[in-house]
Design brief:
The protein is about 40% helix and about 20% strand. It contains 13 helices and 11 strands. Strands 1-2-4-3-5-10-11 form a 7-stranded mixed beta sheet, with helices on both faces. The protein has a two-stranded antiparallel ribbon with strand order 6-7. Strands 8-9 form a two-stranded antiparallel sheet. The radius of gyration is 19 Å and the shape is globular.
């Protein structure tokens, strides 16, 4: 079979598309955020005959939603590895009950156990489709603060997350992430599969222009390394590889402003960026996991 052939298949719920690249005996389930899977993605893990890949691209809602999708649907598919890919913002999104004006479930901790809140998801978010779709243009206007206040008031963002200090937001997100990683690790062990964490950089972080609401990636990397060591979960951190590139090389890896007429496309990986990430992940996986050699 042509190793670059891609098949798309629904897996039983609206919005999820599995991209299957059938190559040989192993199956990788890739659960990713919007910035992770990219808007120009064509194929991943096709550098040699390694695996069948089922892509469960999560549209930017954060690690919490990727976790819920995997738990509800992907565990039904026999697989050997789960790659959970994320950017820094995916950590903070677990603190909100909306994304881009659209409602989503929220994970809370009660007596040390993850509990799903805000379900069923309120339908009020659909009233703000125009604002959501035109947010990029509005961000360049003086009305941005007004629009943000409107979205916060009516789209259901958890008010407490805006009242917390940066340190408190980090700690709250990390408490939830710890439980997510623990449960995903347990689920994978039950299915004789292996969880792998993948930390991806954004162009803003690489250029030292991270949003003020994000803590430095070095701080998050320290947290991820601690969890990886504690739970014996492989961690693939691609920041150093990206930082070794020249600025003109980075430009080809991320979608520039205006290239795609799609809300929020700027800053996602291009075809070249996805191929670069694919090679890096492939090399790191095969060097660490003997099953893939």
């Amino acid at each position: 079979m042509d190793p670059t052939r891609i098949q798309q298949r629904k897996i039983g719920f609206a919005g999820l598309v599995a991209i299957n690249i059938v190559i040989s005996g192993l199956l990788l389930i890739i659960v990713e955020g919007l910035a992770s899977y990219g808007l120009l993605v064509r194929d991943v893990m096709t550098t040699n005959s390694l695996a069948e890949r089922r892509h469960t691209g999560q549209g930017g809602y954060g690690v919490d939603q990727a976790y819920l999708w995997y738990k509800r649907d992907a565990t039904k598919i026999e697989h050997q590895f789960q790659l959970l890919a994320f950017i820094t913002d995916d950590f903070y999104r677990v603190l909100s009950d909306s994304f881009g004006g659209y409602g989503k479930p929220v994970l809370n901790l009660e007596s040390g156990t993850l509990v799903v809140k805000s379900v069923p998801v309120p339908r009020r978010s659909f009233y703000f489709t125009w604002i959501t779709e035109n947010g990029e243009n509005l961000n360049s206007l003086r009305t941005v603060e007004f629009v943000n206040r409107v979205l916060r008031k009516f789209s259901g963002v958890l008010p407490d997350s805006f009242e917390l200090t940066q340190s408190q937001r980090d700690q709250e997100a990390q408490r939830i992430l710890q439980k997510i990683f623990e449960d995903l690790n347990r689920l994978n062990e039950q299915h004789s599969s292996k969880l792998v964490l993948v930390y991806l950089p954004t162009i803003l972080e690489l250029r030292g222009k991270s949003p003020q609401k994000w803590s430095a990636p070095e701080e998050w990397a320290e947290f991820l390394e601690q969890e990886s060591s504690s739970l014996k979960i492989p961690l693939i951190n691609l920041f150093s590889e990206f930082r070794s590139l020249r600025d003109n090389e980075l430009e080809h890896l991320f979608i520039p402003k205006g290239q795609l007429h799609y809300p929020g496309a700027e800053g996602h990986f291009t075809d070249t960026g996805n191929a670069f990430v694919s090679r890096l992940i492939h090399n790191k996986l095969t060097s660490r996991l003997p099953q893939l050699k």
